[in-house]
UniProtKB/TrEMBL annotation:
Name assigned to this protein: DhaL domain-containing protein
Cross-referenced InterPro entries: DegV_domain_contain, DhaL_dom, DhaL_dom_sf, FakA-like_C, FakA-like_M, YloV-like
Origin: domain of life: Bacteria
Organism in which the protein naturally occurs: Micromonospora purpureochromogenes
Domain DhaL: 8-205
NCBIfam families (alphabetical): YloV (TIGR03599)
Amino acid sequence: MLDTLDAAAVRRWCASGLTALRRHQGEIDELNVYPVPDGDTGTNMVLTLTSAQQALAMDLDTLPGDGATAHGHALRLMARGALLGARGNSGVILSQILRGLADALGPVPAVAGRELAVALRAAADAAYAAVARPVEGTLLTVVAAAATAAEQADSDDLRTVARAAAGEAARALARTPEQLPELARAGVVDAGGRGLCLLLDALVEVVTGESPPRPAPVTRAVRPPLTTVREAGSDEYAYEVQFLLDADHEAVARMRAELAGLGDSLVVVGDGASPAASTTWNVHVHVNDVGAAVEAGVVAGRPYRISVTRFADQTAPAPRPRPAADGRAAVVVAAGAGIAELFAGEGATVVPGNPSTGELLDAIRATDAARVVVLPNDPNTQAVASAAAKEAHRLGIKVSVVPTRSPVQALAALAVRDPRRRFEDDVIAMAEAAGACRYAEVCHASREALTVAGPCRPGDVLALVEGEVHLIGADLVDTCAAVVDRMLGGGGELVTLLTGADAPDGLADAVRAHVGRRWPFVEVQAYPGGQPHYPLLVGVE
């Protein structure tokens, strides 16, 4: 738990927020009622924040030389990286939210609750100023609601203000269909607002060490036909033009006026440099005359990274299929109520641990899907899964088994599942994600044995990595922390902890705190797994 937001916390927030956006990228893209590229809000926000994180990583060990605070320097790097990598309206607006935070918090010696509230208001103002014709029921509405709630919290406690902002943002997101008819007709909430809520929840987790328990917004089952309504603007304009521009403020003001006469969906934002100096700008507009738009940039300064997209060449993303005769599904083996709940939340059919071939086959058939992926989560269940797959093939069901050996690998695989891909490509992506997730198990020895780590006696704590005993200890918490250290020594950005049915209270919190001290840039996600025999399962991605 943090009392102030320091540079290390800013870096953890960026990493945690990016992980959350990546996990929900497909979901956010599905929320859109707009054609690509502006419709791919999840993808655009991921690309934008990826650029922000890269900017932070490239400046990992440098200190600000201009008298700025360390946290202000980190926020400025985030904001500039986001600006340079911003994609689409949502990405550009996100970059301005970060810029507003950086401008407000940069000079502040310590960031507590009231300072965060002031910064969120600056972020909301910067976001509104970036859009030529602001529309309510969008990302703008959500960030404004977060700022208002932070101000009304009227507290110096950073955790109180962060929770208030994130909570009201979620409520504002739920109200967006009441403000924007296109959202109401499609039965969804605003995609950009959903992305911002994930980032604010990530901030709460960094500050408090707790994940806000918030359900994902309900999406429609089937996407309606492609609509000509754009994320911001009408269907009168055929092209999206976006570029970076190095120019001074006066020249950009003239260019802004000229572009406003050429089209709509105009967003022109800078990196917050002094008005007297040349600044880097991100320019986004919908037009019919591409040449005139680019020429306006040439007159103003030096445009580069120019991208042009013709809307007529774009197609709507394919609908996310429901389990049906021509759809697909996932069947996952899970030992533990908590683990089963996690998989069910990912839309998978869950089978209790150690199933028979017949039980797995029944689960496959019960999905009513023509293509099914099976995640066995145990080396001993892989042969059973393969046998069930062969039987399913005889019934006309195409089944692929991804050889996951631990539930943490299955979570990684399900996180990248995308029904818009070819089934075969999706299976490959899931297998790659599972293979990239190293796993460990911690248990108590049931008998005396000689292991590769040395002899063990009944009651000793054993830490197994990829199925092989690596550590033998006497204390459960110390051994859990040690095996996480050993795994992170080979690299990693995300640690997943699943606590077992017999895990002592506070085990996950103790390991999370250890990682926070020893590996400050690593994100930790902990869930009650409820699995028998293993107090802790660990995954490192």
